[in-house]
Specification:
The chain is α+β, with helices and mostly antiparallel strands. It has helices at about 10-20, 30-40, 75-85, 105-110, 115-135, 190-210, 225-235, 250-260, 300-310, 330-345, 350-365, and strands at about 50-55, 60-65, 95-100, 140, 145-150, 160-165, 170, 180, 240-245, 270-275, 280-285, 295-300, 320-325, 380-385. The strands form 4 sheets. It has a 5-stranded antiparallel sheet, sandwiched between helices. The chain has a 3-stranded antiparallel sheet with strand order 2-1-14, with no helix packed on it. Helix 1 (about 10-20) packs antiparallel against helix 2 (about 30-40).
């Protein structure tokens, strides 16, 4: 992929030092490390290698990536590797996209308690899906799904929500057969929303009672149990946002969706338009507007742009992609094999077609980095350490290998 004209790394390199000085004492070590990683990514500072085409001798220099999960340039390659593992887990059934969103009132305190409240978001949403799916009045099945945490809106504001990729059905509670959902309908959204609201509020109250929540600034008063209870009271009466989209068209569409969402960061370099000392301009989607007019641009001061990017740094060791139910890692292989057998017994003709489509998608892989001139195989002829200059020079038509997150 060609290098974008403007990258997040460029903004960090040009304006990051001044921003760090202006915010000295208010920037966490984790944020500092992310900024440093992004600034150094795919530069000589991290070393790299020289590759040459075995057919036409075209030579390129590729610098090492920082491999930080918040770096826009590193997520494309990581998504491809992760995606390769998921191909073997696809089932020959429709897949749905379900979204659980925290209300703004909880998002405000989640920023001060990321590890705790983000984890509760995962727990409440997953328990909601499994409980309603297992209800005999609904599907009456053991369901499985993959959840991905996003903490941002299109304008990089703090907006925690979980995206789920859910097979359209599950294994019956007695384990004897596969039960599929109705066409274009998985589970009742209103029922999901109400249970999610109840579970999340109960878990928040329990976390507060256990002393797991901290409050600062304008929210310091919420350390008091009565004040916190009053703060949550109005949320018992409001509608919580849960959204279920129609199923994907097939296995290829599921994989394409996963590749876009699982390793996404707050903003990709492809959305950047311009940057100077007066502001950073980028494209974003205004969800309050319907139709094509929702795609517009926004300009932020460089310091505000950096601040918004960094508020989405996750706590160290926090897993933002999780698997539940039939896809839980402990028994995944056995349950997926069982599910496939039961699906085949239920709909053999359709299953064969969909399974063949999944296999075709898996077989269509191409080399990630072919020669930009002739498409031949690139061989590494030299590696060099951080801060060193390679002995070999790139060909005149050099194109640095870069993968940007979508």
């Amino acid at each position: 992929m060609a290098r974008p004209v403007l990258e997040v790394a460029d903004i960090f390199r040009d304006y990051g030092a001044a921003w760090r000085r202006a915010n000295a004492g208010h920037v966490s070590l984790a944020q500092m490390k992310v900024m440093s990683a992004i600034e150094s990514c795919r530069t000589a500072a991290l070393g790299g290698h020289v590759a040459r085409c075995e057919d036409c001798a075209h030579t390129v220099i590729a610098y090492n990536s920082c491999r930080n999960r918040h770096c826009p340039k590193c997520q494309g390659a990581q998504a491809l590797a992760w995606l390769g593992e998921r191909k073997a887990e696809l089932l020959g059934v429709p897949y749905f996209h379900v979204v659980f969103t925290l209300p703004a009132r909880i998002a405000a305190i989640a920023y001060q308690n990321k590890a705790v409240i983000y984890d509760l978001l995962f727990k409440a949403s997953s328990e909601t899906m499994r409980t309603i799916a297992a209800d005999p009045k609904r599907l009456g099945v053991r369901i499985g799904f993959t959840s991905v945490l996003h903490t941002w809106g299109s304008a990089m504001t703090h907006h925690p929500h979980v995206h789920m990729i859910v097979p359209g059905g599950g294994i019956s509670l007695d384990g004897t057969h596969w039960i599929g959902c109705r066409p274009n309908y998985l589970l009742p959204v209103k029922v999901l929303s109400r249970l999610f609201r109840r579970l999340m509020l109960e878990m928040l109250a329990a976390a507060h009672d256990a002393g797991h929540l901290q409050f600062f600034g304008d929210h310091a008063r919420l350390a008091d149990k009565a004040a916190f209870k009053a703060y949550l009271a109005r949320l018992h009466r409001t509608k919580w946002f849960v959204y279920s989209k129609r199923p994907f068209a097939g296995p290829e569409q599921v994989l394409a969706y996963l590749s876009r969402y699982t390793h996404r960061v707050a903003i990709s370099s492809s959305r950047l338009i311009s940057a100077d000392e007066t502001g950073v301009t980028f494209s974003y989607k205004d969800y309050r507007i319907e139709g094509p007019g929702r795609y517009t641009t926004m300009t932020l001061k460089p310091g505000e742009f950096i601040r918004r990017f960094l508020i989405h740094i996750l706590p160290k060791g926090f897993h933002r992609i999780r698997h539940y139910g039939l896809l839980a890692s402990g028994s995944k292989a056995e349950t997926i094999a069982q599910a496939r057998e039961l699906i085949a017994a239920a709909t053999p003709a359709q299953t064969a077609q969909k399974q063949q489509a999944a296999e075709c998608a898996a077989a269509s892989d191409k080399p990630v980095h072919p020669c930009p001139c002739c498409g031949g195989r690139m061989l590494i002829i030299e590696t060099f350490e951080a801060g060193r200059t390679p002995r070999h020079q790139p060909s005149a038509r050099a194109s640095t290998i870069r993968i940007d997150t979508s």
